[in-house]
């Protein structure tokens, strides 16, 4: 994992965060509220891969919550 290369395992040290490409959940919510958005939806874009499968499983175990789960086919063929 890339963040293991840092002395302190903090995503805020990542180049994309420093350059403003990535934002924290709190920052995204603050931006949305400043733009007048009153409802924020949590959406899992599920493509059947390992990471989204883990998130979906955690959702079914009530460990995390999504408002919507959307299946998105990445279009990869073998």
Give a brief description.
It contains three helices and two strands; from the N terminus they run ααβαβ. By secondary structure, the chain is α+β, with helices and mostly antiparallel strands. The radius of gyration is 16 Å and the shape is extended.
Describe the secondary structure blueprint for this structure.
Blueprint: H1 15-18, H2 25-34, E1 43-46, H3 50-60, E2 68-71
Parallel strand pairs: 1-2
Spatial ordering of strands, largest sheet: 1-2
Residue-averaged pLDDT: 82
Number of helices: 3
Question: What is the CA-atom radius of gyration, in angstroms?
Answer: 16 Å
Distance between the termini: 26 Å
Order of helices and strands: HHEHE
Coarse structural class: alpha+beta
Helix content: 25-40%
Number of domains: 2
Task: Give keywords.
2 domains; alpha+beta; 3 helices
Structure overview:
The chain has helices at residues 15-18, 25-34, 50-60; strands at 43-46, 68-71. The longest helix has 11 residues, at 50-60. A two-stranded parallel ribbon has the order 1-2. The model has no long low-confidence stretch (mean pLDDT 82). It folds into 2 domains: 1-37, no CATH class; 41-78, no CATH class. It is 32% helix and 10% strand.
């Amino acid at each position: 994992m890339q963040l293991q290369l840092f002395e302190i395992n903090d995503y805020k040290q990542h180049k994309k965060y420093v350059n403003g490409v990535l934002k924290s959940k709190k920052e995204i919510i603050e931006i949305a509220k400043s733009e007048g958005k009153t409802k924020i939806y949590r959406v899992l874009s599920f493509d059947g891969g390992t990471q989204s499968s883990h998130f979906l499983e955690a959702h079914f175990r009530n460990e995390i919550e999504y408002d919507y789960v959307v299946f998105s086919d990445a279009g990869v063929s073998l």
